[in-house]
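Annual report, structural modelling task.

Input specification for the glutamic acid complex:
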Amino acid sequence: MIHNKVNITRPLNLSDSITQYRGRFAPSPSGNLHFGSLIAALASYLHAKHQQGLWLVRIEDIDPPREIIGASSAILATLDAYGLHWDETVLYQSQQSDLYRDVLQQLAEKELTYCCQCTRAQIKVQGGIYQGQCQELNLPSKNNAIRFRNHQGIFHYNDLIQGEYLTQLEFAQEDFILTRKDGLFAYQLAVVVDDIYQNISHVIRGCDLLEPTVRQLSFYQQLGYQAPEFGHVPLAVTEQGFKLSKQNKAPEIDNTNPSPSLILALKFLGQNPPDELYSYSVEQIIRWATDNWSTDDIPKKHEITFS
Ligand code: GLU
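The model returned the following structure:
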């Protein structure tokens, strides 16, 4: 199943093929969880536990300028309070730099990367999709981004929740960024490398990441690794179409009284929680939700207005 074109070093206790359900929740520590992110955490947890799988937590702290001090521990405390207990040790992406560098080196040796000097503003003027101008310029890496030569350009796939998903070919074929001009690792690189590193079999997350999934699929294929199954739950948005956050209408995440927002999140996910759940403990609510988890009942919508 696995071809070691890129030898991502695996922890010794893990086998080379994915034989077991291994799900994950991968928050960025740019703030504590809000109602929108709770929905993604809960869905990935329930999908894993309904199938007797493992559920891992990975803190995606690769963007120090956007990181809020204390957010990582606040996220973990919230997950715990909501009964979402993880298996295995939490992985911090800030500890994974050597692995990312190693993968970048191997990709460079295979001429699958090149440096790019284009600014965001220049790309915006060209319609928002980078057109490959730097491909043959042989630019140095200093102060330039590193892009992936995207030979695959996968533009559709079958989502576990949303069904057949199709995106613009132009978007799917873009040579996307693996490291930014400021030298920081990009999301696409870190997320795929770590999902491989952690032998993740299923990725359940919010629909804000539906479109980037096609890029991740191309990246897996080029690396020679089997991609996990992907499923995307609807995004909770305000009437104005903004993602729910602490700044707008999102219900309070209250670690001392998790039941109301937990039940609301189950309703949002179409799980029809009965009223008696209000008198249950958090552990009992999670038990009920795990036993009764039904992906078929999740609305097949990318966004749902929350009011
Ligand atoms: N770290 C990303 C976020 O918080 C999620 C990454 C993923 O689930 O693939 O939006």
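The pocket of glutamic acid is lined by residues 26-28, 60, 191, 205, 209 (CB under 6 Å).
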